[in-house]
Specification:
- The protein is built from six helices and ten strands.
- The longest helix is centred in the first third of the chain and has 11 residues.
- The termini are far apart.
């Protein structure tokens, strides 16, 4: 287990920190990172084994999909998701930002992500260093740092109390106190709000 007490865009000798973090994630390690809302548990969305491990350590209900962080709208193509004109307008309105958007993803090969719902929630975060990381690692699943049913951790100390050595690496950016992302779905160019979070949408 490692811990760095800075953001991942900080000056570090030979920029080894950011490259080390990219390397860990590409190997399927489980990492706690600061997002633009709260701390989150992250691992590559492409790594089925590590995704299942996050379900296990967090005690998350197996039928509930994780949100997926992306570094660009183009990364949706990795999930064979085509965005129509109306949906693209909505994505561009709220991204980058604190809004997670549910899109259709019916393919069976992504069942370990959509958990039978045949939809996935994506978010392009409003955090430059995190976007830079996502462009190098590819999409990452994200979930708040807490066992199911408990309050999300706001500091790395709280994160470690919850999960300790079960997390491979922690990135400390001080106290993060925010509501979670707002969760919406799109159908026929219309928005349905499923969870009001940091961004208020009528």
């Amino acid at each position: 287990m490692g811990c760095v007490r800075t953001g991942f865009n900080s000056q570090h000798p030979d920029q080894m920190f950011s490259q080390n973090l990219v390397g860990l994630l590409k190997k399927g390690k489980i990492v706690v990172l600061p997002t633009d809302t709260l701390y989150g548990i992250h691992t590559p969305a492409s790594n089925k084994e590590s995704v299942e491990k996050v379900y296990e350590i967090r005690g998350r209900a197996p039928e509930k999909p994780f949100i997926i962080l992306i570094g660009s709208i183009e990364q949706l193509k990795l999930f064979n998701i085509e965005v129509d004109t109306e949906a693209e307008k909505i994505l561009n309105k709220y991204w980058p930002g604190k809004v997670s958007i549910i899109l259709p993803c019916p393919e069976e090969k992504f069942a370990y992500l959509h958990r039978g719902t045949k939809t996935l929630a994506f978010r392009l975060p409003n955090k430059t260093d995190l976007i830079d990381l996502l462009k190098q690692t590819g999409p990452l699943i994200t979930t708040s740092v807490n066992p199911e049913g408990l309050e999300p951790a706001k500091t790395i100390e709280e994160c470690k109390k919850y999960f300790g050595e079960e997390i491979d690496f922690y990135v400390d950016e001080g106290k993060l106190d925010s509501l979670p992302s707002t969760l919406i779905s799109i159908s026929g160019g219309k928005i349905t709000v499923l969870r009001q979070g940091e961004v208020k949408i009528e």
